[in-house]
Amino acid sequence: MASPDLVTPWPSSTGYSFSGSLDIRLEEANPADTLPALEVPTSSISYNCTIPKPPPLPCKTFTRTKYANTFLECCSVPKETVDTWDKLFNEGHGADVYVITEDESYVPAHSSVLGAASPVLGNLLQQTRIKNGMRYIKIPGVPYDAVRLFIRFLYSSCYEKEEMKKFVLHLLVLSHSYMVPALKRVCIYFLEQDWLTKENIVDVLQLARNCDAPRLSLHCVRRVVKDFKAISSTEGWKVMRRVNPALEQELLESVVEADSKKEERLKKMEERKVYLQLNEAMEALLHICRDGCRTIGPRDKVLKGSQVACGFPACKGLETLVRHFSSCKTRVPGGCVHCKRMWQLLELHSRMCNEPDTCKVPLCRHFKEKMQQQCKKDETKWKLLVSKVVAARNRAAAFSGQRSGFI
């Protein structure tokens, strides 16, 4: 239990009576006895047909995921227009530019189209001399098929998905180098969706950094952190370690930071769970001492035995602890760990109780008086524990209210 370890002596059982205020009956509980289920009330109000119908509910807003899945399908350009521009590229009628590729092949194009689609290509064409009525520009370091797909996109924004998947990295470089943001968005979209693998993610990360794609870079870093063990054993990681050790160090620091945050998050979750259990124990203790539960409760209450099912989660365990506490002969700190736990629960209740004069929990008023004699260090520990338990209770109540609001 996450209650503070106090060094002050606990009151012994000789001077203060605990079991004297409770009536404990040893009876067998019948698991078949449960409360009847609540029925959902049905409304008897009938709507008059003269009453106007309410306005329709507002349409659902598009989430980021839905938008990402449909943005490529949104197009106001007629299909015939797209086909016309695609046909113009394929046939090359009236072309006045040859785009030379790495293997000395060429792609015919129109300078007006290239200049309008890419400012970089427009400037390059202005600096190119005309030979025999044609201009010649070269795009080195990229396969012919990737260059052709790139030029086709400048005409009609059309592409084949299989070709795009094959040359997406080349097209990302081309879209950045020649300032074609529409193609860049398409490449980033497909890479973020399902084209990243543990073999290529390191290369994509470095490319995203060089091509000014921060969202893709962040996406890659998160994937590396998530699957670090598998990615760090790939060939791409080994090459990156040799040529870019600074990036490797950055990724290692990200992995360490993510692990630290995960451990801290798990630690906080465990702490909240303990404080919530303490709050449930406080509720069960008050329930037993005030109302009674099955076979244990105050002497002025008529216990119903096993006929009533208890709705307090901690009641069963606390009932066992109370039975032990009422019959234990040791009941001193250091002598019985179960009794020490019970003393701590009683003191925690007294510090959370606002009605010590009328409270039916044993020793509640005694612990209120004892607070004045405790040292400052112990008092600080208890105040911190009480604040944590109260915060856990409020958080659970808020969460329960939100769930009921959604239902």
TrEMBL record:
Keywords: Ion channel, Ion transport, Metal-binding, Transport, Ubl conjugation pathway, Zinc, Zinc-finger. Residues 95-163 form the BTB domain. One of its GO terms (biological process) is response to salicylic acid. Residues 269-367 form the TAZ-type domain. Pathway: Protein modification; protein ubiquitination. It comes from Trema orientale (Charcoal tree). GO terms for molecular function: calmodulin binding; zinc ion binding. SUPFAM superfamilies: POZ domain (SSF54695), TAZ domain (SSF57933). This is Voltage dependent potassium channel. Coiled coil: none annotated. PROSITE patterns: BTB (PS50097), ZF_TAZ (PS50134).
